[in-house]
Amino acid sequence: MPFCAPRRRGLPARVPVEHLLEVLKDLNCSRVGVKSIYERFRRLAPTGLISLPKFRESLGLLGLFGKLLAESLFFAFDYDNDGFLNVVDFTRAVLIMLIGSDKRRLELSFRILQTPSRQEAGTISMKEGDAPPEPSGIDLKSFTRIVNDIRTTRNVLTGQSVPNPSPEHVENVFKKNSSICIDGVARITQHDFERAVHCSKEFVELMGAPCRRYAVEASIVPGKLPVEISPACRPFTKCGSEDFNLRRQRTYINRTTQHRRRYHDSDTDESLPLKSQGVSRPWLSPRRGLAVYFGHERWNDVINVMVGLGLTARKDIGDVTRELIPADFTDKVTLSILPDTISGLMPSLKFVEHDDRHQFRRDDDPNKIIFTEHAPLVFKRLRKLMNLSEDEYIQSVGPEHLVGNMMLGNLSTLSELLSEGNSGALFYFTANGRLVLKTVTRQTAEFVQRWLPSYYEHMRDNPQTLITRLVGLFSITQCKRGGSTTYFIIMNNVFYSSVAIHRRFDLKGSWVGRSVPLHERKDHTVALKDLDMVELEEFMELSESRSSALFETLQRDVDFLSKSMLMDYSLLLGIHYRSMSDDDVNWQQDPDPRQMSCFMGKNRDRLYFVGLIDVLTEWDVRKRLEYAWRRLRTFNNPGVSCTPPERYAERFVSFMKSRVA
Question: PIPK domain spans which residues (predicted)?
Fold first, then answer.
């Protein structure tokens, strides 16, 4: 009789009740959130356990280059000290990093940073069930190792060669933020760590996190109509003499830019959202996808994009002040990115610049990434036109602070998956909420390249334009996927503001199907539509001079879009009401009169935020056929959205004027 090995049991399809209850009693999160992470874990570890090598693999490039990072995260997550991560360990760690309270995130962060000290003490290798002694803190040797590993990994990801901090500086910062323990050795204790994270700029800089945004969530007073905060993009607090208004502004960057989240448990503000279905524009919808965390199917994609964006943003492209020539609009920079695990003492990334003719080859290394930036000089000029400095752009899209923030128990520097619509487009926010990344089709990318000269001219000649500001066009080819290429654009976020948005509208000037179901109107993060605005008797209350200036700008923009044979765009309108405001707003002072995207109501009781979005829909054969079909279906109803550009523009402006009081 043949010998049969014991059958390996896998995780059940549904979350075991005991696992669900254990996580729910430990964290204030939704059942749906736990179930979503459970599904990710099942795909990552069908047998129910993740070893250190498997966990390092799940981190992608970070696991390949950040050996200490992978070990620190793994052993910090392994609460039962058995050398494996089970589903409860994994779920708890992910939820703490995404939605955990200040206290829980600080506790986890300290465990992460303590790993080298615990390894030295031998407490990590103890048998399951043993009670390890309470670690007393982080000594200078472990602290130095952490700082140097963070800097080394950061250099690999950014392609830079920034030297490690001097031992004297590291020791000086350590001494300022440590205590003498009972055995006479200086260590950073839990209390020391919390104080350093809040108050020591030097400490946080050594940890590789942005000095302007620290690792703990700021205290936020809930408003009368609260706006949800993206847990993975939480603001940081800072002690010292920093201007209070600046801190409040950073707090509300995420409250207003991350408003699209709707939690599935109404009794908690810290539920993890589900992936949305059928939503193509995340800034209009509360539905939101899961944050892209380690183990997520798109984790490696996000890391690769951040690395590529950081490299191209830092690349020297010569004289940026010269006059643009036609070749600048078709120019592109192509880099290949390939992990190098053979040469040198440690793994690294090989960055090679290629000419415009470089393409994917069948014999390419499957780990190779080909990253292309289109019209780099033109988009650099466009970023300057919107007052986005190159430093802020790099900090927004690059991986500079990725490792440091993860060591501090925070996933805030990672872009986050927002929604996946019928078009298959994916949306991501940058961590500071100022920019949005959106995947587009090859046809759309080619149109942007053709349209770019006239678009640049319009943006240059009309600094107060309301049209979406495009700041980059890129493509990424992944050889392991047979050379498939993904195109994406980077654009500004209309609701990047310092106050909460209490009501928002998506206006097209059409009326067929342009309303939101009554049960969804109660959610203030849902963008209402044209018929809703009429039914609610909502008007933009503008002074005569402001109304004249607004429609002069709007008419120029719409005329430009019409001449470009574009249609189906929307006016995104956000309103901040004085009666609901908990923000420090000087209601007696008007915003910059030259700024058309933000203005005060004539009665000084409202702030308006406006922008033209979805401006890349061409009046092509497909739209012409759709127009003909809709005319037949609606008996030639003039209120359908799909209409020829000139007629669309006239109807659009006419409706906007009718909503001004």
Answer: 313-660
